[in-house]
């Protein structure tokens, strides 16, 4: 078994190919690049039972792009539970509903997966200076894994970023710059730093997809090497949706999972839904969304670099895309807490709200097995948790039980 069966990077737009052992974070044509693997050889040489028994992202190293095992950076990411949601599912007519609970990752979100693989590959290239534009969760993940690998990290973020993430980035030694202006200004500064100072811009790094791909690989393994009917992906930059689609496409090519492969659902907030808009229009490209608004800050990506690839994933799997309101998101957060004692962030709650809407419309059937990608816990968003109005303060000598 090889350390990795990676072969090259291929542009999803024009088909141009690039060597995987040199830095590359996008095609010359402006399109997104995806890692490819020698799946024919892997199918002949690799078996699921030959994978390490230990859970985690690097269990899947042969299907990840890091060729040198010494460059595998880890803090124990991956191996998160697939949690059945019988009460929450039954409440919306989906008794076979489950959630992939990513809140148990290091740094508290699924962003740890992409950061682990991305930092590993960047370290393999010998690069030391990184920059990333992020609203918070990705920033913390990349700052943490960069520190773990001994790399320098610069975070460009906006004033509405979650303070807990920014303070943690500083704790991890990252230089944090809060850019006052549109998100495009932060992206412009990152690109300028890349040209002028040689910073490696992680915002277009395809390894982020490979890290998120392990979510799909784990779902298949947890289900005994079969696919669920549907996987619902809350989507900002589209990385998880593309990663899940890529995971099951590769598992199908390996013969480890039989068709049909899962339908992928992209969920965005109504206040920032560029991929949903493009899908509904039948477009092949995603246009920038102006003036994003939503309590789900992690989904407020106005110009997702991998958006066109996400549209391809939706169409190839027979999936769909829809937008949900902030009120629906709040109701979903409350419902998951009430029915399942599951504390989820607004981004994850958007997936439950979407599943409810899709069941009501008939797009989802009662017998469908549906997996929600639950990206993080509500603890990341203390301002969205219920007020402590019912907390009782007991004074010395006061009886605990009132008449």
Question: What does it look like?
Answer:
The chain is an alpha/beta fold. Helices cover 36% and strands 15% of the residues. The chain has twelve helices and 13 strands. The chain has helices spanning 39-45, 86-91, 111-125, 137-149, 163-171, 183-197, 207-222, 239-254, 274-281, 307-317, 326-340, 346-361, and strands at residues 6-11, 17-18, 33-37, 82-84, 97-101, 129-133, 152-157, 175-178, 200-201, 230-234, 263-269, 320-324, 370-374. The protein has a six-stranded mixed sheet, with helices on both faces. Helix 7 (207-222) packs across helix 8 (239-254). The chain is globular, with a radius of gyration of 21 Å. The mean pLDDT is 95.
Task: Tell me briefly what this model is.
With 403 residues, the protein is α/β, with parallel strands linked by helices. It is built from 12 helices and 13 strands.
Looking at the structure, what is the overall shape?
A: globular
Question: How many distinct helices?
Answer: 12
Indicate the mean pLDDT: 95
Distance from N terminus to C terminus (CA atoms, Å) equals 71 Å
* Largest sheet entry: 6 strands, mixed
How much of the sequence is in beta strands?
5-15%
Strand order of the largest sheet: 4-5-13-10-11-12
- In angstroms, what is the radius of gyration? 21 Å
Helix content: 25-40%
Q: Uncertain runs with pLDDT below 50, 5 residues or more?
A: none
Please state the structural category. Answer: alpha/beta
> What string gives the helices and strands in order?
EEEHEHEHEHEHEHEHEHEHHEHHE
Counted beta strands: 13
């Amino acid at each position: 078994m090889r350390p990795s069966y990676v072969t090259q990077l291929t542009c999803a737009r024009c088909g141009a190919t690039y060597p995987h052992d040199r830095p590359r974070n996008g095609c010359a044509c402006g399109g997104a690049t995806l890692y490819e693997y020698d799946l024919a050889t892997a199918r002949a040489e690799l078996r699921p039972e030959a994978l390490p028994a230990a859970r985690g992202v690097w269990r899947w190293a042969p299907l990840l792009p890091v060729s040198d095992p010494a460059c595998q950076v880890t803090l124990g990411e991956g191996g998160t539970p697939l949690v059945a949601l019988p009460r929450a599912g039954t409440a919306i007519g989906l008794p076979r509903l489950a959630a992939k609970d990513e809140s148990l990752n290091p740094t508290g979100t699924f962003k740890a997966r992409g950061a682990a693989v991305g930092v590993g590959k960047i370290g393999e290239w010998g690069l030391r200076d990184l920059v990333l534009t992020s609203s918070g969760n990705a920033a913390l993940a990349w700052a943490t894994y960069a520190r773990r690998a001994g790399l320098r990290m610069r975070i460009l973020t906006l004033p509405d970023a979650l303070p807990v993430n920014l303070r943690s980035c500083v704790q991890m030694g990252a230089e944090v710059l809060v850019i006052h202006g549109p998100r495009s200004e932060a992206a412009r500064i990152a690109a300028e730093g890349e040209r002028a100072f040689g910073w490696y811009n992680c915002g277009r790094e395809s390894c982020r997809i490979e890290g998120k791909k392990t979510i799909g690989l784990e779902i298949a393994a947890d289900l005994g090497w079969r696919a669920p009917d549907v996987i619902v992906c809350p989507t900002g930059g589209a990385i998880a949706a593309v990663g899940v689609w890529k995971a099951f496409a590769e598992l199908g090519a390996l013969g480890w999972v039989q068709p049909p492969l899962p339908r992928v659902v992209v969920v965005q907030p109504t206040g920032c839904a560029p991929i949903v808009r493009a899908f509904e229009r039948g477009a092949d490209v995603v246009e920038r969304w102006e003036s994003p608004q939503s309590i789900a800050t992690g989904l407020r990506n106005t110009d997702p670099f991998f958006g066109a690839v996400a549209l391809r994933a939706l169409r190839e799997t027979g999936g769909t895309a829809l937008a949900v309101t902030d009120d629906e998101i709040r109701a979903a957060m409350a419902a998951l807490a009430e029915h399942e004692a599951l504390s989820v962030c607004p981004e994850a709650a958007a997936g439950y709200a979407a599943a409810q809407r899709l069941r009501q419309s008939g797009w989802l059937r009662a017998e469908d097995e549906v997996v929600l990608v639950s990206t993080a816990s509500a603890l990341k968003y203390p301002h969205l948790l219920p007020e402590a109005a019912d907390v009782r303060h007991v004074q010395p000598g006061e009886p605990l039980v009132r008449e």
